[in-house]
Structures are given as structure tokens and as C-alpha cells.
Amino acid sequence: MNKNFNFCIVDDDDIYQFTIKKTIKALNLAQNIMAFSDGEEALNFMIENLNKDEELPDVILLDINMPIMDGFQFMEEYIKIKPKLGKKITIYMVSSSVDMADLARAKKISEISDYIIKPIKKDKIKAIIEKLLWDKNID
């Protein structure tokens, strides 16, 4: 499997960050895994690296409930900077929330590829990479 993907985890749960990083590393699926504890940190990183495709993530695993800037607030700001990005970024909203309102709200945002209920299983991470590889081959 291709290992040229940058993963970005945006989640304030240190244990989740640790386990998902370990899962991605164990599957040997990424060249880089970055993690941020809130949406504002992640957004600032993206703004600072707008023209550096090799630094920007290919995949963002975005939590909903975080301090400072939650996942939905991040998406509002991401949509504003998206036209300036030279790279396609695939975003998955990842949450322990099973609230239908959260799910419906996420589905209304076309930039969100899918809504995943935590915990993310290894097979789901593999499926995300396979979809990225498929999309890359089509482009």
C-alpha cells in the first residue's frame, strides 16, 4: 500500500490521539501524522502552509467537541480557505456523538466525506486509504 499520505488528527482526547496514531503507524499507511488539540491550532497550521502541499494533510480526522474551536467551527473556517489550497484534502468527522443532529449537520457540509463513530477500527482506516488511492488514480 502507498505510504505517501499525511494524516492530521484534530482531537482534544490524548488517549484517542495516541491510539489512532498507533493504529495508522501499525498499518504502515502514512509518511506523516500530525495532531492538534483543537480546530484553531489545525486551521492556523493550514493557513501557515497554504502553498506547501507536501506539508498539508491528505486526510483530516476531525472531532466535533473540542475547546477553543470545535469541529463545525473548523469546517466554517476551512471552507473559507479551501479555494486557496492547492491540494485536495479529505475530511472525516470523527466523534463519539451518536446525536442525529450532529450527523445531519455533518451531512449538510459537502467537504465532509463521512461521519465516523469512535472508535475507528483498523478496517475503516484501511478503507480510507484505499479510497484515497482510488481517487488519486482517477485524477
What does this structure look like?
It is globular and about 35 Å long. It has a single domain, classed as Response regulator (Rossmann fold, 3-Layer(aba) Sandwich), CATH 3.40.50.2300. The chain is 42% helix and 19% strand. The longest helix has 17 residues. It is built from five helices and five strands. The model has no long low-confidence stretch (mean pLDDT 90). By secondary structure, it is α/β, with parallel strands linked by helices. A five-stranded parallel sheet has the order 2-1-3-4-5, with helices on both faces.
Features:
139 residues, alpha/beta, Rossmann fold, five-stranded parallel β-sheet, 5 helices
The radius of gyration over CA amounts to 14 Å
**How many structural domains can be distinguished in the coordinates?**
1
**How do the helices and strands follow one another from N- to C-terminus?**
EHEHEHEHEH
Silhouette: globular
Structural class, please?
Answer: alpha/beta
On the 0 to 100 scale, the average pLDDT is 90
Fraction of helical residues: 40-55%
In this structure, how is the largest beta sheet organized?
5 strands, parallel
Number of helices: 5
**Top CATH class:** Alpha Beta
Strand order of the largest sheet: 2-1-3-4-5
Short description:
It is built from five helices and five strands. The chain has 139 residues and is an alpha/beta fold.
Task: Give the arrangement of secondary structure elements.
Blueprint: E1 6-10, H1 14-26, E2 32-36, H2 39-48, E3 59-62, H3 71-81, E4 90-95, H4 100-107, E5 112-117, H5 122-138
Parallel strand pairs: 1-2, 1-3, 3-4, 4-5
